[in-house]
Amino acid sequence: QVQLVESGGGVVKSGGSLKLSCAASGFTFGADTMDWVRQPPGKEREFVARIYWNSRTTAYADSVKGRFTISRDNAKNMLYLQMNSLKPEDTAVYFCNRSPPLGYWGQGTQVTVSS
């Protein structure tokens, strides 16, 4: 069965860094495009970053470009998001999923950035 388990969130001060991880199983992770999305408090989910199966192509939301880096390890079925220069507006629950998304979402990982 499909599983997506996000981890690595926490509370950090503005300007700090965090690295999120996503353990994926139950689908063809190594052949699929993967996304990180986030849901800020009281708002809808929004796209953050995308990586194609071979890691050669990535894409980022304008709001995180230059600060966040998406990566993957297909041998380990792992997806990562390195987040640097964090801002209070990055506060959200972060989720990973296939692009287009599977009919299943993990629990997400909370990132809180204090000013």
Structural class: mainly beta
Main beta-sheet annotation: 6 strands, mixed
Count the DSSP helices. 0
Q: N-to-C SSE series?
A: EEEEEEEEEE
Low-confidence stretches: none
Proportion of residues in helical segments: under 10%
Instruction: For the record, give the distance between the C-alpha atoms at the N and C termini, rounded to a whole number.
Output: 40 Å
Shape verdict: globular
Strand order of the largest sheet: 2-10-9-4-5-6
Mean pLDDT across every amino acid position: 97
| Amount of beta strand | over 45%
Radius of gyration: 13 Å
Count all strands and give the number.
Answer: 10
Key structural traits:
six-stranded mixed sheet; single chain; mainly beta; about 120 residues; about 50% strand; four-stranded antiparallel sheet
Give a brief outline of the structure.
This protein has 115 residues and is an all-beta fold. The protein has strands at residues 3-7, 10-13, 18-25, 34-39, 46-51, 58-60, 68-73, 78-83, 92-98, 109-114.
What does this structure look like?
The chain has about 120 residues and is an all-beta fold. About 0% of the residues lie in helices and about 50% in strands. The protein contains no helices and ten strands. The protein has strands spanning about 5, 10-15, 20-25, 35-40, 45-50, 60, 70-75, 80-85, 90-100, 110-115. The strands form two sheets. It has a six-stranded mixed sheet with strand order 2-10-9-4-5-6, with no helix packed on it. Strand 4 and strand 5 form a beta hairpin. The radius of gyration is 13 Å and the shape is globular. The termini are far apart. The mean pLDDT is about 95.
